[in-house]
């Protein structure tokens, strides 16, 4: 193996107190209950010499598998004579490399391409076209700079609820059981807020007008985007 790509992984099960995964139940299910089992399953303690050229990607807000796992594993790879690049995306949580996070997605894809260029000595590889194609792909995934009220009107469907944005700033939040909750919303230009039961949540409109999203600010899911897709 010439190259290794690791994304938000656990690499040392013997030193993983910062992470929520794996908990005791998961350790038992995956055969990690004893110190000996945890050591044997940890890439950190079982690197070949020299290790492959490695790229480790992690979200700085990830507490399911803490970013310290990638940082320490990168240091261990280097200590064993290998080359390791560790990229921590401070604003993101777990499993974030997708077009809905366009800046992070582009940076990660270009870093992965460069990993393979180094690992397979593709010295003549030109990534100019790749970067242009990424820019074209991602152009509509950025938040709109200016939101018009008529762009918001209608039904927006998420995983756990549907949002109905009506005229005159009126709204409804409908949960998966069909129970509606009255709400209001206010457009601030580049963002808009929905208020229900005294709680306010900030939303963004994607440039293509097909998606609105909010970003969780605190807790276990801090940094994650909650996506709502326009429905007729």
Number of helical segments? Answer: 6
Read across the widest sheet, the strand sequence of neighbours is 4-5-6-7-8-9-10-11
Rg (CA only): 22 Å
What is the overall shape?
flat
Description:
The protein is of the alpha+beta class and 232 residues long. The protein folds into two domains: 3-138, 3-Layer(aba) Sandwich (Rossmann fold); 149-231, Lipocalin, CATH 2.40.128. It contains six helices and eleven strands. The protein has helices at residues 24-29, 35-40, 68-79, 102-119, 128-138, 149-152; strands at 3-7, 53-59, 84-89, 154-157, 161-165, 170-175, 180-187, 192-196, 199-205, 211-215, 225-231. The strands form two sheets. The chain has an eight-stranded antiparallel barrel with strand order 4-5-6-7-8-9-10-11. A three-stranded parallel β-sheet has the order 1-2-3, with helices on both faces. The longest helix is centred in the middle third of the chain and has 18 residues, at 102-119. The radius of gyration is 22 Å and the shape is flat. The relative contact order is 0.12.
List the helices and strands and how they pair.
Elements: E1 3-7, H1 24-29, H2 35-40, E2 53-59, H3 68-79, E3 84-89, H4 102-119, H5 128-138, H6 149-152, E4 154-157, E5 161-165, E6 170-175, E7 180-187, E8 192-196, E9 199-205, E10 211-215, E11 225-231
Parallel strand pairs: 1-2, 2-3
Antiparallel strand pairs: 4-5, 4-11, 5-6, 6-7, 7-8, 8-9, 9-10, 10-11
Short synopsis of the structure:
By secondary structure, the protein is an alpha+beta fold.
